[in-house]
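Backbone shape codes:
===
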Amino acid sequence: PSGPRSAGEGWSGRADREDRVRLASAGRASPVRGPAARWAMASGGWRWLRALRAVGQPLFQGRALLVTNTLGCGVLMAVGDGVRQSWEVRARPGQKFNPRRSASMFAVGCSMGPFLHYWYLWLDHLLPASGLPGLPNVLRKVLIDQLVASPMLGVWYFLGLGCLEGQTLDESCQELRDKFWEFY
């Protein structure tokens, strides 16, 4: 059928479900109400998610995982800085968003990405964990991460960002001493 059916006609069978999905995806209201209409819209949504997963899956395997983790770390740092700057702009009238600052955060995040990629691979190899029985190993991993990697990355963060902002090594070290415990 080329258009929606009248309210008097029933919807049944596979062809009718496909019509409902087609109508829902075209933005035209389906005369079906309730669970059948929700199913029609949901099946199209699940198909879209499955396709997205199939396209993105290679990014999380093999060598591409290193690139994905590196860029992901940079993006998270830049987005976090963008959120913080948005808050600062609202709190302090006259202050403007600084894209260079977010770009610096992206660069520092990308520089941390490979280290973090290999660090977490090593931790997973050292302390494998899955399910509830693996909870003690998960807690050990968190403890090791917080005692070893977090302080190292804190130093990396302050020195790297200081370098990108044109600070001297002494200025970066002083900022690290002033802000490390708050950061940690």
